[in-house]
C-alpha cells in the first residue's frame, strides 16, 4: 500500500535523497548524461532483451512449423497465437509486473526475505488466473465462431490452443521467477535458462509436428513442453543458488497473507499491459472489415509484427528502468532514482533512432520476408514513415511505463492507456480508415495519436509526479519500510 508521507517530488528544485546530502539546485541533472548509469543499464538490458527474444521465438517457431503444413494450418496457428497472446500470455506478463515494484523495492531496502514471500504470493495469483484462462481456452472454438471467425479455422485453432493449456501455468511461474531474479540483478543465468529451452524446442517441435501422429497439435504442445523445461531448470537454481540464499528461504504459508498486497499492483499491471496489446490487435480486426481486406489486413499485421519486435527490445530497457528505480527507491536513494529515469529516457531515444534508421534503409528487405507481392512491398514502403513515428513514440512510452512500474503507479497507467487508445486512438483510426478511406494509413495514424497521448501523459506523470516508496508488508504488519527523506 502507498505511504502518503513517504514521497518526494520528482522535479523539485531542492531535494535530498537517502545517501545524497547535496541538494539539487536546478534541473541540470536531467540534461546531463551519466555515462556510468548508462553503462549499467545497457549491460543490464542486453541479457534481458536476449531472454525476451528467446521466449518469444519459442512461440514463433511453432507457428512457422505449423504453417508449413498447409494454408488452413497457417491461418489457424496465426489466429490461435493471437488469441492466446491477448487472452493469456499478456495477462501473465502484466500480473508478474507487480514483482518489479515489490521485489525491486524490497531488494533495495535489503528486506531480502520479503522477496521470496512476494514471489510465492504472485505464483499463487498466477496459478488461479491460469485456471480461468484454461477454461476460456477450452471453449476457444465457440468463442471464435461467436466473433465471426471462419468455422474451419476456428475449429483448428481450438486444437492448437488446447495443447497450450499446460503451458500457461508454466508461463505464469516462469515470469514470476524471472522478475524475482531480475530485481536482484541476477541476469546471465536467465539468458542460459532461456537459450537452452529454445534450442531444445526447435528439435522437439520439429519431431512432434513432422515425426509423430500429433502433427499440427504437436506445434503448440511443444511450446508447453519447452516452457515447463525452463521452469524446471530455474527452480533448482532458485532453491540452491548462493545468490538467492537470503531471498528464498523455502515455501511459507505466510505468502497467503501477502496476496492482497500483491493484487493491488498485479491487477492494474495486467490491465495496463492488456489494454495496450488489445489496441494493436484491434487494428488487425478493423483492417479485416475494409474493402480490400486482404491487402489491408496483411499490411496492418506486418506493421503490428514490426512494432511488436521493436517493443520487445524496448520492453527490456523499460524493465531495467523499472528495476533500477525500484531498487533505488527501496534503498532511499531518491537522487539516484532520478538519474536512472533521465538516463533511461535518453537511451530510449537512442534506441528509437536506431530502429528508425534500420527501417528506413531496410524496409523493402524486411517486407520481402513477409510477402513476395510487389503491391504489398510498395504499400509497406509508403507506411514506413508512419511506422517509424509510432516506433519512436512507443520506445519512449515503453520506458516511461517501466518507470511507472518501478514507482508503483500501475493504476494510473491503466487510466492513461484506456483514455489514449480507446477514447483517442481507436476513434481516430476508425474515422480516418473508414470515413476518409485512408485504409491502413488511417488505422496507423490513429494508433500514432493514441501512442502520442500515452507518451505525453506518462511523461507529465513522470516529471510532475512524486517518487513513492511502498509499504512492502501486508496490512497491519508492525514492520514498515523507512521513509524516503524529502
From TrEMBL:
A GO term for molecular function: xenobiotic transmembrane transporter activity
One Pfam family hit: MatE
GO cellular component, one term: membrane
Keyword entries, A-Z: Membrane, Transmembrane, Transmembrane helix, Transport
Transmembrane regions: 49-70, 82-103, 115-139, 159-178, 185-206, 218-240, 340-360, 380-400, 412-436, 442-463
Topology within the bilayer: Multi-pass membrane protein
Compartmental location: Membrane
NCBIfam families for the chain: matE
Annotated PANTHER family: MULTIDRUG RESISTANCE PROTEIN
Similarity-based family: Belongs to the multi antimicrobial extrusion (MATE) (TC 2.A.66.1) family.
Official protein name in the record: Protein DETOXIFICATION
The species this protein was found in: Trapa incisa
Amino acid at each position: 500500500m502507498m505511504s502518503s508521507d513517504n514521497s518526494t517530488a520528482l522535479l523539485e528544485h531542492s531535494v535530498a535523497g537517502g545517501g545524497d546530502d547535496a541538494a539539487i539546485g536546478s534541473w541540470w541533472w536531467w540534461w546531463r548524461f551519466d555515462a556510468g548509469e548508462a553503462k549499467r543499464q545497457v549491460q543490464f538490458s542486453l541479457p534481458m532483451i536476449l531472454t525476451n527474444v528467446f521466449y518469444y521465438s519459442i512461440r514463433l517457431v511453432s507457428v512457422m512449423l505449423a504453417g508449413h503444413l498447409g494454408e488452413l494450418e497457417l491461418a489457424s496457428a496465426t489466429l490461435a497465437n493471437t488469441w492466446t497472446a491477448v487472452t493469456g500470455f499478456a495477462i501473465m506478463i502484466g500480473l508478474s509486473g507487480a514483482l518489479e515494484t515489490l521485489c525491486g523495492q524490497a531488494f533495495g531496502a535489503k528486506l531480502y526475505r520479503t522477496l521470496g514471500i512476494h514471489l510465492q504470493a504472485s505464483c499463487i495469483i498466477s496459478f488461479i488466473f491460469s485456471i480461468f484462462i484454461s477454461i476460456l481456452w477450452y471453449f476457444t472454438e465457440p468463442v471464435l465462431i461467436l466473433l465471426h471467425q471462419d468455422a474451419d479455422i476456428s475449429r483448428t485453432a481450438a486444437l492448437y490452443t488446447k495443447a497450450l493449456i499446460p503451458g500457461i501455468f508454466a508461463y505464469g511461474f516462469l515470469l514470476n521467477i524471472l522478475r524475482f531474479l531480475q530485481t536482484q540483478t541476477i541476469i546471465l543465468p536467465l539468458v542460459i535458462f532461456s537459450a537452452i529451452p529454445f534450442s531444445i524446442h526447435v528439435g522437439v517441435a520439429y519431431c512432434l509436428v513432422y515425426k509423430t501422429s500429433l502433427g499440427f497439435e504437436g506445434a503448440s504442445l511443444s511450446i508447453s513442453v519447452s516452457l515447463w523445461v525452463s521452469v524446471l531448470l530455474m527452480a533448482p537454481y532458485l532453491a540452491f543458488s548462493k545468490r538467492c540464499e537470503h531471498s528464498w528461504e523455502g515455501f511459507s504459508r505466510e505468502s497467503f497473507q501477502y496476496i492482497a498486497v500483491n493484487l493491488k499492483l498485479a491487477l492494474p499491471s495486467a490491465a495496463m499491459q492488456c489494454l495496450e496489446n488489445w489496441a494493436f490487435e484491434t487494428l488487425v480486426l478493423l483492417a479485416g472489415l475494409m474493402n480490400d481486406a486482404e491487402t489491408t489486413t496483411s499490411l496492418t499485421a506486418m506493421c503490428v509484427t514490426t512494432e511488436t519486435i521493436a517493443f520487445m527490445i524496448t520492453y527490456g530497457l523499460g524493465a531495467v528502468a523499472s528495476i533500477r528505480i525500484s531498487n533505488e527507491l527501496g534503498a532511499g536513494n531518491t537522487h539516484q532514482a532520478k538519474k536512472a529515469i533521465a538516463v533511461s529516457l535518453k537511451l530510449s531515444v537512442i534506441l528509437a533512432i536506431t530502429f528508425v534508421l534500420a527501417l528506413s534503409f531496410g524496409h523493402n528487405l524486411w517486407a520481402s520476408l513477409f510477402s513476395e507481392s510487389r503491391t504489398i512491398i510498395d504499400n509497406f514502403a509508403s507506411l514506413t514513415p508512419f511506422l517509424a513515428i509510432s516506433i519512436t513514440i512507443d520506445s519512449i512510452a515503453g520506458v516511461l511505463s517501466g518507470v511507472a512500474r518501478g514507482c508503483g503507479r500501475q493504476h494510473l497507467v491503466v487510466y492513461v492507456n484506456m483514455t489514449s487508445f480507446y477514447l483517442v486512438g481507436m476513434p481516430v483510426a476508425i474515422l480516418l480508415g473508414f470515413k476518409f478511406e485512408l485504409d491502413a494509413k488511417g488505422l496507423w495514424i490513429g494508433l500514432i495519436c493514441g501512442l502520442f497521448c500515452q507518451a505525453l501523459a506518462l511523461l507529465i506523470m513522470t516529471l510532475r509526479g512524486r517518487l513513492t516508496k511502498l509499504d512492502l508488508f501486508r496490512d497491519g504488519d508492525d514492520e514498515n519500510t523507512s521513509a524516503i527523506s524529502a
